[in-house]
Amino acid sequence: MLSLSRCNNINDLRSLAKRRLPRSMFHYIDGGADDEVTLRRNTDAFDEYEIQPRFLRPVDKIDTTVTLFGKKLDVPFFIAPTGMSRLFHHTKENAVARAAAKFGTAYSLSTLGTASLEEIAKETDGPKIFQIYILKDRELTQEFVDRCKAANYDVLCLTVDVPLAGNRERDKVTGMTMPPRFTMKSLFSFFTHLNWSFNLLLHPDFRLANVVHRVDALGKGAMGLIEYVNGQFDRTVTWDDAARLIQQWGGPFVIKGVLTAEDAKRAREIGATALMISNHG
């Protein structure tokens, strides 16, 4: 049986995740929107790259370090933000942050993480990025900025490709909707993935840790938390709002989700440090 220690590549990791996770959880992280054409293109694009070795030069000492946002990384990549990691493993974002620190790279925490930004700050002394939205509750957005400064985060990353959620057809089939739609098939999948279900019972505390205090103040439960977050996405956000957030932060600032050259130029004009190319919807 394939174990994590025997995974040699991304395909092995995908196969292991499919085996260990209930059906709805696996397809939530594996799937894309509509017919998943863009999802396939994302993968296929990497097949177009060639690594062309150069010979007759000393390679006894290889340096893979890069400097990004003024921070030295031991490898030329870092961990992108992923929301609700507790759904997939009970060690949630904390374990990923520790792994990033172990390998000398940066970690990005999602606003919709199940660990708070303060928790993650305690897990790693490496570079830390916080992925943020400009929410309808502008006071909460400002609160995130203040908390990131207090916790010594290095970079703020604004996600902009959220005016409308993607039409994720796999989730409709598996019942991974809000609220969740349980079927006999999905319940059977939970029952046959005992390790995942057992850990859910042992570690039942699922919460969107960075916003839960707002929901608690409103006296709402778990589903109220989801409803609150979904209601916070603002379809009226403009470049002026992004520019104000850059000024409020005052440090390295990434805009995530820009997909055109025109928008890339505009991002640079308002003071963005970098772009994160993403079509994650």
TrEMBL record:
InterPro entries registered for this protein in UniProt: Aldolase_TIM, Alpha-hydoxy_acid_DH_FMN, FMN-dep_DH, FMN_HAD
Presence of keyword Oxidoreductase: yes
The entry's keywords: Flavoprotein, FMN, Oxidoreductase
Cofactor(s) in the UniProt record: FMN
FMN hydroxy acid dehydrogenase domain residues: 2-281
A GO molecular function held by the record: FMN binding
Matching SUPFAM superfamilies: FMN-linked oxidoreductases (SSF51395)
PROSITE patterns per the UniProt record, alphabetical: FMN_HYDROXY_ACID_DH_2
Family, per entry: Belongs to the FMN-dependent alpha-hydroxy acid dehydrogenase family.
UniProt cross-references to PANTHER family, sorted A to Z: 2-HYDROXYACID OXIDASE 1 (PTHR10578:SF107), S -2-HYDROXY-ACID OXIDASE-RELATED (PTHR10578)
Identification of the protein by name: FMN hydroxy acid dehydrogenase domain-containing protein
Taxonomic path: unclassified sequences, metagenomes, ecological metagenomes
